[in-house]
Amino acid sequence: MDKGSKGRRSREALATPVLPKTPTGITGLDELTGGGLPRGRSTLLCGSAGAGKTLLAMEFLVRGATEFNEPGVFLSFEENVDELSTNFASLGHDLPALIAQGKLSIDEVRLERADIVETGEYDLEGLFIRLGYAIDSIGAKRVALDTIEALFAGLTDSGVLRAELRRLFRWLKTKGVTAIVTAERGQAGLTPHGLEEYVADCVILLDSRVIGELATRRLRVVKYRGSAHGTNEYPYLIDEGGISILPVTSMRIDYEASTEHVSSGVPLLDAMLGGEGYYRASSVLISGTAGTGKTSLAAHFAQASAQRGERCLWFAFEESLSQIVRNMRSIGVDLAPAVERGVLRVHSERPTMFGLEMHLLMIRRLVDEFQPRSVIIDPISNFAMVGDAVEVKVLLMRLVDFFKTRGITSLFTNLMTGEMQEKTQAGVASLIDTWLLLRDIEIGAERNRALYLLKSRGMAHSNQVREFLLTDHGVELQDAYVGKSGGLLMGSALMVQRAQDEAHAVAAAQKTDLLRRNLELRQQAVEAQIAVLRAQLELERTTALSEIARDDERSAVLEDDRARMASHRHAVDPDVRGTETPETGGST
Amino acid sequence: MTPKSKDPTSKPEATKADELWELRLYVAGQTPKSVAAFDNLKQLCEEMLQGRYSIEVIDLLKNPRLAREDQILAIPTVVRRLPVPIRQLIGDLSDTQAVIVGLDVVPRHQVEASP
User: Fold this and answer.
1) Distances in Å between the alpha carbon of A146 and those of A84, A170, B35?
2) Interface contacts A/B by beta carbons within 8 Å
3) Which residues of A390-423 are buried (b: 16+ CB within 10 A; e: fewer)?
4) Mind telling me how many Å the CA of B114 is from chain A's nearest CA?
5) Alpha helix locations (H) across A68-200?
6) Does residue B82 lie in a domain region?
7) Which residues contact A517 (CB under 8 A, 6 or more apart)?
8) pTM, rounded to two decimals
9) How many structural domains is chain B composed of?
10) Distance, in angstroms, between B18 CA and closest chain A CA?
11) Band of the pLDDT at A520, cuts 50, 70, 90?
12) CB A129 to CB B67 under 8 A?
């Protein structure tokens, strides 16, 4: 449904008198009719045999009586009170008790053409009196006529019947009761006798068809005069809980986006996802070929969830609980304590058990019951067995919507077959917030697992391909190792490369060490040389100094001698002698 | 089950003498159809079941509960309560032929005897 137009209409509805509606109390039906059936009017409910017309009509009355304090009259043309009581007892409704409390009145109309002879003109005033009496005696607000078309089988004068039916529906309006009129599905029109001409306010079609050996039931509001309504086909389910309709495609995209993170259970994967893991209430898809470790990754997520004390609901479409626990134990993930504590529930079922809608409703019901914070669906690809690609996509979309509105983090695994590429899954992927791809990579005659983070909305995420290892202590991600050729190295190729690198590193370290030692030795040698030179220098200096001293002494002696000689001759005056002395000193 | 009369033109005087016919006519007020039905029924009974029948007229407007109890849908309706089995005729009984067949006023032994 167009979101905009619905919003506009509801605003208009506030201004103009709102069409009064009678809630049916039936899961989903009130949602998609915007509040229920038109109050005080008749609704035509048509569908093929076994589509659940009687059930829906009776549930309308029973819920009216029990939940809305509106007693109801059931006019049955097909089944008697005992049959109806038995049928509805299995659905948890105690019809005889409701009858005893005056909340329900069942009138069985027996009409056998063989037993009735038409002898002239008649009308159906008897029916009016019967119905009127039943309505008045319990103050009924709701009426179900199931299946009024039996009149056409029991009576021949269709002209009279048509006139009387027209009168009946007008009369029901004057009685102020909200009625459901059931009818078979017709070949040409909606109903074999064109009842839709008379009951024109609201027409609901129930369709039960078998696709691929699986019965799928769908409901469609064909017409709802004066009211907006969901126009799509909605799957519905009949089981021990009665009838429930799932109008998921009418859901709008207006859920709150959480900024909270939840761990994937694998630290390095959390690191790839911006450091903290998936967003809460986001949808995660893990796709990969067989044996790439999808379930293992899911198990980590489940365990992380359990460790946070949050409930996790695991829908396993391939393995049983004990199988999952055993297999995951082999990789060091023990789910048994979480199961025992009741934080993890595993629901195993074959996808071929029933159709997609039933699965959807089953999932919805279990989620309502268990109230998990996260849900694992492993794998969604098995739904392809019970529906075509478009249907599976619709299913997934509904599931994603459903989980998001509930704030549930959902993790889906998807088994890809060899030839499937990312492109072919693009349709599904658009619904997914975080998409992990696990892939086998063949390098050096071995298969290794690699994890790609194809997308993760709203977070800075790693674009690196990681090697994905399943060890006996869980999933491990290896940092990507890019070889010399630029390709990703993993497995033994990676180990070889690692060993080589290690050898290189050791050699390099040794070389450095040697260099360092050489340097030290050289330094020591140089320093020794410096010491020797310094000693030599010192020696030379002392020698030189002592020689200088000796020379000085000698010249002093010489001077002395000269002075003595001069005084001896008295040739020099003492002043002259004084000036001559420095001259002598300078020459030395 | 009572075999239906194969020959509705059988003579009315052949009716079994010891059978008592208990008939009920359901009406909803004095409508022309109801009045016509009563007149037609009375006339037929006088012709064929003289002295061996009773007609009880029930007005559903006065006894609406009986509509459900006696499985009445159409008005007017005639119910043959006796002889068993119960038979129901609807309409104003203007189609005499149909009434004769419907009430099965032709004696059983005669129908069985004729091939």
Assistant:
1) 12, 18, 32
2) 99
3) ebbbbbbbbbbbbbbbbebbbbbbbbbeeeeeee
4) 22
5) 81-89, 95-100, 125-138, 150-154, 158-175
6) yes
7) none
8) 0.60
9) 1
10) 24
11) very high
12) yes
Name the residue with tokens 């309308």: A60
Cα separation, A489 vs B113, in Å, equals 103
Q: What is the pLDDT of residue A415?
A: 82
CATH number of the domain residue B25 falls in? 3.40.30.10
Which among A117, A145, A171 is the top mutation candidate for probing chain B, defined by the most B β-carbons within 10 Å of its own β-carbon?
A117
Cβ <8 Å between A118 and B36? no
DSSP 3-state of A524: helix
Domain range for B101: 17-113
| DSSP code per residue over A343-367 | SEEEEE--GGGS-HHHHHHHHHHHH
SS3 labels along A44-99: EEEECCCCCHHHHHHHHHHHHHHHCCCCEEEEECCCCHHHHHHHHHCCCCCHHHHH
pLDDT, tens only, A167-190: 998 999 999 999 999 988 877 777
- The residue count of chain A comes to 588
Contacts with A, B 19-58, CB within 8 Å: 26, 28, 31, 33, 36-37, 40
- Cα A511 to Cα A40, A371, A497, A520, A525, distances in angstroms: 97, 64, 21, 14, 21
Task: Give me the residues of A, 110-139, that contact B with CB < 8 A.
Answer: 110-111, 115-127, 129-130, 132-134
Q: Which residue has the higher pLDDT, B111 or A377?
A: A377
Q: Is residue B1 part of a domain?
A: no
What mean pLDDT is predicted for residues A325-343?
89
Closest Cα of chain B to A151: distance in Å?
10
In a domain, B60, yes or no: yes
Task: For residue A435, give the 3-state DSSP assignment.
Answer: strand
| Buried/exposed B88-113: b ≥16 CB within 10 Å, e otherwise | bbbbbbebeebbbbbbbbbbeeebee
- Condensed to tens digits (0 to 9), the pLDDT of residues A377-398 reads 988 877 777 666 667 777 787 7
CB contact under 8 A, B68 and A107: yes
Cβ–Cβ below 8 Å for B95 and A118: yes
ipTM metric: 0.79
Annotated catalytic residues of A are 78, 318
Does A243 contact B at CB distance below 8 Å?
Answer: no
Element (H, E) at A222: strand A214-224
Distance of CA A83 to the CA centre of its chain: 44
* Residue B51 domain-assigned (yes or no): yes
The sheet that has A409-415: what strands, in order across it?
A: A344-348, A312-316, A374-378, A409-415, A283-288, A434-443, A446-456, A466-471, A474-478
pLDDT digits (tens, 9 = 90+) for A120-147: 889 999 999 999 999 999 999 999 998 8
Q: Tokens at residue A512, please?
A: 């450095």
> In this structure, what are the phi and psi dihedrals at residue A363, rounded to the nearest 5 degrees?
-60, -45
Tokens of A133: 């009496």
Query: pLDDT (tens digit, 9 = 90+) per residue, A540-551?
Result: 999 999 999 999
- One-letter identity of residue B9: T
Measure the CA–CA gap between A141 and A145, rounded to whole angstroms.
13
- C-beta atoms of B94 and A126 within 8 A: no
